[in-house]
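Subject: sequence -> structure tokens, single chain

Hey, anyone have a minute? Need the predicted structure for the following. Not urgent.
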Amino acid sequence: MIRVLIFLIFVSLAALGAAWLADRPGDVVITWFGYRIETSVMVLIAVTAVLMVLSVLLWTLLRTILNSPYLLSRFIRNRRGARGYQAISKGLIAVGAGDVRLARKFAAEARRIAAGEPLALLLAAQTAQLSGDRSAADAAFRAMARRPDTKLLGLHGLFVEARRRGDARTARACAEEAASNGPTPGWAGQAVLELRCAAGDWVGALEALERNYRSGLINKAIYWRHRAVLLNAQASAADESDRNRARPLALDAVKLAPTLVPAAALAGRLLAESGELRKASRIIERAWRDSPHPDLADAFAHLRIGDSARERLARVQSLAQKAPNHVESALAVARAAIDAQEFSTARTVLAPHLRTPTQRVAVLMAELEEAEHGDEGRAREWMARAVNAQRDPAWTADGIVSDRWLPVSPVSGRLDAFEWRVPVAELAAPQSRAITTDESSALIASRASAVAADAGELMVEDIKPDDAAAANPLVQRPDAAARPVTGEMPQAGAQPAAMEAADAAGRASRPQPAGNTGRGRARRMVEPISPLVRAPDDPGPELPAEPAADRRHLQDFLK
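Reply:
Had a minute. Here:
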């Protein structure tokens, strides 16, 4: 609207000016080089305007002729750029659609038209990845890594390719180089942290975590939690060799994350060894109120070395009052009561959980029956119920179950991945097989030895193979033909060893119960799945400890 008003005002002023000149015609006389020109003012104005327009047109034509080489080259360049952009666009669309033939066609055209363009290099790399040509993909990503404008993109591609082929050293070198150039990209910061954790370089992992926090990749709460996890991992590594160094690290971890169960248990044990019982008790009780855990109960029970079983029971009972309605409180008191031969106390605390017992509750009841009354029949019945009972919580991460906490997931390399929760139930039922008399005898004797060791005063007598075969209908005598055995729950009186053997075939696909079930806890070692992470007992690949060594390796790799 304003523009219309301005235009109307301008037209009105022009009309007024023309009318004013028309009302005052006047004459103009020009004498120049002997020529005399007489005309009116309006004609002079019109001629002047025409001369100005002709001058502008002439100058424009002359400038166009002079700039014609540059204009022609710019036209060709723009046309070539448009064709290259079209080829790159169609090639990326073909890559996204999974059409290898079209992707190769447009990648070749983009390489011919715009060989040095970053998107052309990206299209060539993605086309090589789509067609499975890893060497060509590496070459394209290396070319991008050599350019300042596409260095991060090339390093990311090289990192992905290195992880895909299991080259941990090159992957770490690429991530370290990307993280060292200005602001840390999210993928590089996370990769450096995970790879340093996988190599057991806890000091380097703390530095990477600090850099990620300064770069704004993580918030303060996550930073505190992950720092506590790394400090606890460092303390656990130093626990066997340098207790004086491990103690302050564990205390720092507890300060950052008071509810981190492994840190609280380790700090409590180390403080108890140094005689600081009151401080150790406060740390464990604080963690217990938030997250009752068998490791905390075990550490609290053994705070004072040399205590009798009854003294340990009294201490565990005081801890259980911090979480009176939790099943872990009942299990901890029952474990300590069985050790102290306070069988009535064990039965009392386990009674509310017998309606739907978990595996650990059933195992404790089996130990209780055999330790108090020597009733093997009732013990076998409880062991039979334990096989198919509800699972107890365990340290779980990415679908695997570990018998102890680990700072890093062996599957994904994720920090602080393990959670104390009930594992996902298996879909397949365990398969059973017939066992021989010798196998049954060995398993029964082994179980009896464990129960006797827990009870403290029971004596284990030799069990004859013939007696075991007669008592257990699932046992196959050496001279008998093999017969199939079903996987149904045995009735009261079935041998616990037979049930263990019946479940043996299914254990390969079924994780074992984890957690603290006393001295008879079930253990399962976690095997490393990803080539970039390792189990605690595995030395893993030899990785350079310093970023400078990573840079030298990357420079050699790019050459």
